[in-house]
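Quality-control log, excerpt.
Job 1 of 2 completed; input and output follow.
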Amino acid sequence: MAGAPTSAGREKRCGVCGHESRQPGFRPPVPEQAPDLDLRPGEPVRSTMARWLETCPHCGYAAPDITEAHPAGAQAVAAAPYRALIADTAHPVLARRFLAWAHVLEETGALHAAAEATLHAAWVADDLNRDDLARQWRREAVALWRSGPALDAEQSVRVIDALRRAGDFAEAEGAAEALAGLNPPEAVAQVTALEVRLIAAEDMGRHSMASAIAPPARRPHVTHQPKKRPPEGGGLKSWLRRIFGG
């Protein structure tokens, strides 16, 4: 049952403002379809994005777990840029939630995690056929990835895909050539080869990992993986320990 709360929810105290609010429980289903090339999970997880973050109704703090807040993140939530971001009605409500979390992560120095959250906002724009916003937020995600520590092979593939889907074909081609020159693992090489073909065709569309790697090209939702402490940022919970933690 995709996207259903695990219970009626429970009261949680916000780590930023201290107010309590009822937050719905969420247990992600097991992915049954291959992820996209940018690792957006397949169904039924794909349709559960509205439950990936919690939001405090009092201060507007959005996070995987609102009970946790980095001190710098709490300061960011109270500042004018965050208030303007969550109030911007020109952007979809769910996208604003991910962008707000990305802003907090950026302020705490977790740039790769901020890139992930920004990419998630682009996924929301994809679903609403807001191609203009999807391209903008993919470019912002790329900038955040490149502003952080050195990228691993997986992140490099996602940068290539984001550039291609934003229509930045020349830049995507250069990134693909650079990655191919590093002799990456076979699976990464296969995905990169597909990206090169799509770039040559000036294809900005969504494509599945199953197009590049023989089944099962399936990435488990992170709550189905062993937990590990993220290398940057703080307070990342649940499946966001892997995806948002970079």
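Job 2 of 2 completed; input and output follow.
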Amino acid sequence: MAKCIMVQGTMSGAGKSFLVTALCRIFARKGYRVAPFKSQNMALNSYITADGLEIGRAQAAQAEAAGIAPDVRMNPILLKPNSDTGSQLIVNGTVRGNYPAREYFAMKPSLVPDILAAYQSLAAENDIIVIEGAGSPAEINLRDNDIVNMGLAELVDAPVLLAGDIDPGGVFAQLYGTMMLLSEQERRRVIGTVINRFRGDVSLLRPGLAQLESLTGVPVLGVVPYARVELDDEDSLSSRLRPTDTAGCGVDVAIIRLPHLSNFTDFAPLERHPDIGIRYVSKSSQLGFPDLVILPGTKSTMADLQWIRKQGLEDTIRSLWKQGVLILGVCGGYQMLGQRLSDSEGVEQRGDMPGMGLLPTETVFSPRKTRMQVEGMCALSGMEGIPVTGYELHMGTTTCSPSAHPFCRRRDGTPEGAVTDRVWGTYLHGLFDSAPMVNALAERLLLAKGLLPTGQVMEDQFAYRQQQYDKMADLVENSLDMERIYREMERFHGK
């Protein structure tokens, strides 16, 4: 069975996903067979594996860093919030239902067999499993029935690295307070602490590190410097969703920040094109006059369409379209652009709702979730034949009027999406991972506003991600006491 190491954090956003991704790359570069594992993930950014199963986007990236294909066993439990108090529960890649928080908390023990089966299966095939916790192990109100932090560490006998983020301040209090709220048995699992995102002269930090070690009784195993590396974000805490100034960019792209925004990682590649600037907006007054408006994916299409109307965004978007602005809807955004949304089975909210009326389509919601990877060719005028890859992940079926042209054609020739005058709709997540697609879009938008293409292009997205994984691994390997980590993994494994 594989050895393991677990990364827990003092809070969400402490850098757990970053460290796990880097460790996966470090171990893989040493020749180990390594796989990531997160027993329970709560995220609206998800990914579809080759066999049509759904996992957290972060685990897909970690698998890629490890040099292996994403596998549903890497994230057996996925929660996708669909309200402030409830989530859709996905077990082993398929939907089990919608549950209020209290009901899910009570049922968590029943999921332990699924978690252990997934972990043990991965462990039988690999040398090292790098495990990611969730939130904080010091959420003492959730200690009973814990299946993702110390509860999981106990189940699989994992040594734990505890990470804190110094960037927002208070990292010593984060780490000390977390340790003090752990039980004595849990504290014995912590082999060391890690401080993430440090800026400045580390020698000025050392007196604090010595005192922290004295107070907690565990060593500080590393201080990781702040660095600009790109990793697929897991949730709405992402800094990408903050307002951004796109002045000076040839192309201005405005993305509507929906309340239940999902898979916003779709648009990260656009940021990398030298001529494209993207910004997230939530008010009509913030829209201005962009070159492209994107309605992104959402976990709650009908509720978010109601929100768009309350914000006055629908009228503003329609006005921009009439003035020549291109509108793109992806997944839930695509559904919104149609004539009507129907939900007779109460998948989202029972009843019918008029869509924005910009595409000749109708969507009928059903409990069955469409999950599949897609390859094909773009069918947009002037962009025909550009390779397209991505994945579909949605509840419901959308039918198109014969008057609509397809957005693309799948490899078998069947049409996908719908296009009319300056309105595009598609179900494809990951669409912009195709560098030719992004480059062609930038050129089209530049020409539409009378600007000559600069000739600057975006490089291949897969190659770019590989560079980022190596950059993360170099940073972490040079910052952590890796020899100590190897020894502790051996010690726990030899118990």
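Post-run check on job 2. The first helix runs from residue 16 to 29.
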